[in-house]
């Protein structure tokens, strides 16, 4: 008889993820705050108070711990810690250290992301990642985070989705707005090399702070699927947008796998999903099996580097579809573990409904947030996903 679940591997991370700018509110010294209040962008609305998690993080952590989660991935904000070049805020470092301590007190293991899409205004104004000295400036910031991550933090992520950082830089250089209906824009090659160098410098700084910290970064996996005859086209398309960033993780302690949907590639390139397919609130194809493909492809590239699913989820107004999506996705994770992949954790996106880089409309949250009162409400999907943390078992993929 085959059981319908498999046990978590030893030490498995089980949690949810957030990003500072998307939930904290009033991140006024960041480059994104400037973009949100500029004209001629794709941004529909500014972040403003977001979820007010800068003040309400204890409540967020209380909820996650009570639901059964054992891990919480959150980011710290460079623009708060170094609001002016070379000037570091002890108050903000203390704030983020309180968050680390608060997580530990609640039985949540903190995974800290050092950079999640936003940079200080001053860093952007001097030319961003490709400006002279940018790598050294990021390394200096990482070193300054020692009071936050030096003790009690097992996992640190240097840069979230560096491939998307490079893609966004490419768009900006070309003066383009928005993404095509399928695939990703061409990344900026100079930015690609810069963020890889910044990552490697940051890894050295983190290990110098505490050699026991497990350090890596996360990559946005688009799950490029080749149609017959398009295998070479797919490989060529994927490498600058994804594989080069996975290859850069071969010397890391782990690599984060982040997936939501798939992209089919034909002989002429990416093909939009058919009109009849189910779509999420982000207009992505509903495709819960994406994470299985992403894990297996990443493992092919990095070899024996441990994998952690650091983001996976769905933007939907129908919470039953969220449960269905996670059921399908976790079945893929379980199957990959049974096939021998070294998968050390699963963190859902997202703990909260949040600011999705231009709009609050795509609701990814396991926990709903009232935009006016900031009241938090755990959805049934949160109760269900948290219960798996208490049982320490993953559902098998349906036959």
TrEMBL record:
One of its GO terms (cellular component) is cytosol. The keyword Hydrolase applies. It comes from the Bacteria. GO terms for molecular function: beta-glucosidase activity. Pfam families: Glyco_hydro_1. Coiled coil: none annotated. SUPFAM superfamilies: (Trans)glycosidases. Keywords: Glycosidase, Hydrolase. InterPro entries: GH, Glyco_hydro_1. GO terms for biological process: carbohydrate catabolic process. Belongs to the glycosyl hydrolase 1 family. This is Glycoside hydrolase family 1 protein.
């Amino acid at each position: 008889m085959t059981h319908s679940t498999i046990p978590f591997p030893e030490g498995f991370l089980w949690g949810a993820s957030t990003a500072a700018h998307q939930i904290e509110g009033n991140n006024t010294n960041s480059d994104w705050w400037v973009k949100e209040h500029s004209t001629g962008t794709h941004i529909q609305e500014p972040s403003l108070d977001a979820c007010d998690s800068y003040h309400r993080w204890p409540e967020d952590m209380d909820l996650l711990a009570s639901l059964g989660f054992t891990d919480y991935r959150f980011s710290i904000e460079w623009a708060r810690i170094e609001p002016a070049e070379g000037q570091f805020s002890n108050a903000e470092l203390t704030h983020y250290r309180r968050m680390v301590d608060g997580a530990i007190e609640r039985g949540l293991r903190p995974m800290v992301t050092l950079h999640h899409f936003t940079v200080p205004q001053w860093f952007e104004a001097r030319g961003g990642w490709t400006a002279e000295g940018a790598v050294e400036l990021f390394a200096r910031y990482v070193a300054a985070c020692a009071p936050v991550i030096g003790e009690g933090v097992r996992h640190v992520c240097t840069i979230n989705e560096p491939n998307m950082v490079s893609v966004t830089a490419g768009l900006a250089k070309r003066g383009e707005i928005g993404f095509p209906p399928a695939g990703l824009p061409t990344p900026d090659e100079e930015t690609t090399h810069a963020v890889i160098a910044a990552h490697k410098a940051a890894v050295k700084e983190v290990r110098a702070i505490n050699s026991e910290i497990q350090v890596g970064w996360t990559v946005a996996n688009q799950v490029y699927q080749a149609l017959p005859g398009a295998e070479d086209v797919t490989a060529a398309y994927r490498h600058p947008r994804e594989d080069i960033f996975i290859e850069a993780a071969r010397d890391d302690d782990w690599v984060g796998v982040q997936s939501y949907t798939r992209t089919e590639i034909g002989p002429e390139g990416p093909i939009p999903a058919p009109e009849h397919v189910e779509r999420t609130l982000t207009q992505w194809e509903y495709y819960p099996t994406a994470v299985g493909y992403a894990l297996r492809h990443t493992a092919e590239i990095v070899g024996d580097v441990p994998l952690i699913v650091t983001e996976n989820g769905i933007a939907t107004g129908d919470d039953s579809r969220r449960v269905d999506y996670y059921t399908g996705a976790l079945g893929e994770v379980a199957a990959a573990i049974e096939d021998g992949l070294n998968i050390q954790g699963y963190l859902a996106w997202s703990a909260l409904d949040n600011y999705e880089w231009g709009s609050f409309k795509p609701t990814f949250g396991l926990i709903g947030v009232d935009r006016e009162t900031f009241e938090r409400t755990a959805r049934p999907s949160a109760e269900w996903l948290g219960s798996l943390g208490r049982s320490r078992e993953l559902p098998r993929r349906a036959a």
